């Protein structure tokens, strides 16, 4: 059975999907971009600020499911420009202990929703 997870502290979906779906103990989180859930504005001043907002949005969804970044087992990072990798990685990496960090891929893409520079999705498991 699946349970829809939502948080008012993360942007509402802009299409036919949910912020996350909990199936058993596994949380499948939709990709987040740098939309500020309070203002609806994109935070794209810098790639670091953009990534910080993405991580805050992901954290809000994790919290709504009773989880933290410690529960994340897989991340997917989509970048518009691979030259931003080190800056994105620094912000992303600040949320994880390197020894127990989740599996991950990072791919460069032609474009992303609302023409942002980074989108991140995650899978988490409640132990």
Helical region count?
2
CATH uppermost class: Alpha Beta
Number of strand segments: 6
Task: Work out the count of structural domains.
Answer: 1
Helix fraction? 10-25%
CATH architecture: 2-Layer Sandwich
Family: Belongs to the RutC family.
Protein name: RidA family protein
Organism: Zhouia spongiae
Summarize this structure briefly.
The chain has 127 residues and is an alpha+beta fold. It has helices spanning 47-64, 85-93; strands at residues 2-5, 20-23, 26-32, 72-79, 103-108, 118-125. Helix 1 packs parallel to helix 2 (85-93).
Layout of secondary structure:
Blueprint: E1 2-5, E2 20-23, E3 26-32, H1 47-64, E4 72-79, H2 85-93, E5 103-108, E6 118-125
Parallel strand pairs: 4-5
Antiparallel strand pairs: 1-2, 2-3, 3-6, 4-6
Characterize the structure shown.
It comes from Zhouia spongiae. This is RidA family protein. Pfam families: Ribonuc_L-PSP. Belongs to the RutC family. InterPro entries: RidA, RutC-like_sf, YjgF/YER057c/UK114. With 127 residues, the chain is an alpha+beta fold. It has one domain: RutC-like (60s Ribosomal Protein L30, Chain: A, 2-Layer Sandwich), CATH 3.30.1330. Helix content is 21%, strand content 29%. It is built from two helices and six strands. The protein has helices at 47-64, 85-93; strands at residues 2-5, 20-23, 26-32, 72-79, 103-108, 118-125. The protein has a six-stranded mixed beta sheet, with helices on one face. Strand 2 and strand 3 (26-32) form a beta hairpin. Helix 1 packs parallel to helix 2 (85-93). The chain is globular and about 40 Å long. The two termini are 18 Å apart. The model has no long low-confidence stretch (mean pLDDT 97).
């Amino acid at each position: 059975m699946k349970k829809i997870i939502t948080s008012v502290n993360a942007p509402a979906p802009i299409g036919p999907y949910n912020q996350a779906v909990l199936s058993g103990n596994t949380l499948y989180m939709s990709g987040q971009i740098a939309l500020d859930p309070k203002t609806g504005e994109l935070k794209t001043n810098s790639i670091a600020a953009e990534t910080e907002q993405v991580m805050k949005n992901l954290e809000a969804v994790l919290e709504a499911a009773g989880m933290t970044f410690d529960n994340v087992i897989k991340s997917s990072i989509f970048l518009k420009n691979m030259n931003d990798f080190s800056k994105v990685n620094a912000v992303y990496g600040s949320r994880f202990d390197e020894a127990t960090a989740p599996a991950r891929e990072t791919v460069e893409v032609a474009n992303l929703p609302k023409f942002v520079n980074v989108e991140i999705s995650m899978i988490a498991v409640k132990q």
